[in-house]
Structures are given as structure tokens and as C-alpha cells.
Design brief:
The chain has about 325 residues and is of the alpha+beta class. Helix content is about 30%, strand content about 15%. The chain starts with a strand and ends with a helix.
């Protein structure tokens, strides 16, 4: 038995017409000289007239427990244990358009901002659909199988979150939002967008769902990069890292690579490394300035070419090791 003071609940919640609030079963009212009328109830009872959605709260109070926050609640990164979202993935790098194209091949020939299906038969042969438990996905075969292992670990370590996870898509051939040059890694079926309790985390709003903070280390452990680290924060997004894609290639998942992937940063790349390049170019080329959005597009390439011309370097428009060193980034 736990004593609760609930006189205001019955007063502020609407009552059915002609019905008076009365104590529930397994409860009784008694008078405390210091506090006035008190309602004593067990944890499985609630006052008549309290709306059903309030019942879980009443039970939590009756047990002396705080009401649990929702896993889909969005909070600031400063309210999490994360020191900096830009470095949350450690040594993992986001997957790169140039590496994906060289090792996996192109899913299709053209891309827009709209989601389209792959058209390359060789790529389609590497696609599969599988059940993840709370949802189903279609994606690149090694990515789908890796996601299955991740979901198994989430179920074992965070079962309450596992039950409320959903997917907003995996394979989707389109450009990165807001870009005309960078292809989304969804196009290769190596990225997945997650929902929690049916809700998507807001894009580029500086907030993150509580549940994502709890499970991102599991994705990292399996070689997946968390989109919270993108300059344009995308916390609902997880993708196979550049290192993981290259490991799959070494393991023979894609057959014989079409070409050797470039090491230099180039068109289509994005992430903290591209952001650092853009910031350094702006310092070197001032007052000329490009957007510091972390996406290597046409303007970034033009700025690299301008810097290469300024320093007498080979004008290839790529963020090579020579360029990075000249900019003080190595």
C-alpha cells in the first residue's frame, strides 16, 4: 500500500455527465490532519474518472517510479553522453560514391531527388529482401546480412527499443537531399533509415531520439557509420562504412571490381573530412568562399582546382594527399 495525494487529478479531469468521482476498488480515502483528504490505493487500481491514458502514470507513481521517457523523444546532443556528434564514429568513415562505384558498380545510370529502382542487372543480382524482426528490408546482400546481426544484438541488449524499431527504407536510388552531384548510399542499398515508435528523427535539427543514442554503439561495433556525424545531421541514418564496403570487396562479395577506387576525396564524397577540406579551402582562398556543407560537389571541386593552380599542383580537382598536406590537414 502506498499513500498518494491525488485530490487535483479528480478535480481537473473531466467527469462523465452526472457521474461523481469516487475511489477505485482496492482504495480508500482517509483524512490526514496536516495534508487533508488522502487517497490510498494499490498499484493496480486508479481513481474513477481519471482518463485511461493517465492510468500508466498513476501506476508508476503508485510504485514510486518516475514515468519513463519515450524512446522516440528528441533531445539535444548536449543532453547525451556524446562529447561531439562529429567524432562519434571514431575511425569509421562514411561510404564513398567513388569507392562504391569502383567496387560494387552503378545501380543505375541517372539519379534525381526521387527514389527510383536499380536498373543494372549485375547490381540487381546482389540485392535481397529479408526479415529483421520488427520490419523487413531490401538492400545489398552483405549489408542486409550485417543488419540482421545488428538487429540480433539490439534485441539481446536493448529489447525494449528493438520492439519499437521500424524502417523508412534501405534501397532507394536517389541523390543526397539538397545535392545535385552526391549519390545517396541508399542507392547501393547499404544504408537504412530507422523509425522509433513510428516516428522519424528530424533531419538537420540538432536533436536526436533517445533510442538512437542507445543503439548507435551497436551499429558502430559492426562497422556501420551513424549519420549523426554528417555536417547536415541525419541521426535516423546508418550506413556501411567505407572500411566495411572495402572489406566486403576483399571477401569477394562483389566479384571482380570494375576499377581501383581512388584514395583522394572527390565528387560525391561527404562527411567530416569533406567539411574540413571546405573550411581549409575557404581559409586559403579568402575572400572566395564555398558552402561548408560537408558535401563534395561542383563548387568544392572548383575550389580545389583554384587552390591547385595557386600552389602549382596538378589540376585534377581532387582532395588528394598532396592537396590536404598543402592545406595543413595532414
Amino acid at each position: 500500500m502506498i499513500t498518494l495525494r491525488l485530490p487535483l487529478l479528480g478535480a481537473i479531469l473531466p467527469q462523465p455527465q452526472g457521474q461523481k468521482s469516487r475511489p477505485a476498488r482496492n482504495s480508500r480515502i482517509f483524512h490526514d490532519p496536516a495534508r487533508g483528504p488522502q487517497l490510498r490505493l494499490t498499484s493496480n487500481s486508479r481513481p474513477s474518472g481519471i482518463a485511461e491514458p493517465a492510468a500508466p502514470l498513476c501506476r508508476a507513481i503508485a510504485r514510486g517510479l518516475p514515468a519513463m521517457p519515450s524512446f522516440s523523444e528528441e533531445i539535444t546532443f548536449s543532453a547525451t553522453p556524446i562529447a561531439s556528434r562529429l567524432t562519434v564514429n571514431g575511425a569509421l568513415r562514411p561510404a564513398r560514391n567513388s569507392v562504391n562505384t569502383a567496387l560494387i558498380g552503378m545501380p543505375r545510370g541517372t539519379y534525381t531527388q526521387d527514389c527510383q529502382n536499380p536498373t543494372n542487372p549485375a547490381f540487381i543480382a546482389m540485392v535481397e529482401t529479408a526479415d529483421m524482426g520488427p520490419f523487413r528490408v531490401t538492400g545489398l546482400r552483405p549489408a542486409v546480412r550485417a543488419l540482421r546481426r545488428i538487429m540480433d544484438d539490439i534485441q539481446a541488449e536493448q529489447p525494449a527499443i528493438h520492439r519499437v524499431l521500424g524502417s523508412a527504407g534501405m534501397l532507394c536510388c536517389r541523390l543526397v537531399r539538397g545535392s545535385s552531384t552526391s549519390i545517396s548510399n541508399h542507392a547501393w542499398g547499404i544504408a537504412v533509415d530507422l523509425t522509433i515508435e513510428g516516428r522519424l528523427d528530424g533531419y538537420n535539427d540538432g536533436l536526436v531520439q533517445r533510442g538512437l543514442v542507445e543503439i548507435y554503439p551497436i551499429f558502430n561495433r559492426h562497422g556501420f557509420y551513424w549519420g549523426a556525424a554528417f555536417p547536415r545531421e541525419d541521426s535516423m541514418h546508418f550506413e556501411a562504412s567505407d572500411q566495411l564496403v572495402q572489406k566486403w570487396a576483399r571477401d569477394g562479395e562483389f566479384g571482380t571490381p570494375a576499377s581501383v577506387p581512388p584514395r583522394a576525396l572527390t565528387i560525391g564524397d561527404r562527411g567530416p573530412a569533406v567539411l574540413a577540406l571546405q573550411m581549409a579551402l575557404n581559409r586559403a582562398l579568402a575572400p572566395v568562399e564555398i558552402d561548408e556543407d560537408g558535401i563534395f560537389g561542383k563548387d568544392t571541386r572548383a575550389a580545389v582546382l583554384a587552390f591547385q593552380a595557386q600552389r602549382g599542383l596538378t589540376p585534377d580537382g581532387q582532395g588528394s594527399g598532396v592537396v590536404l598536406e598543402a592545406l595543413g590537414l595532414k
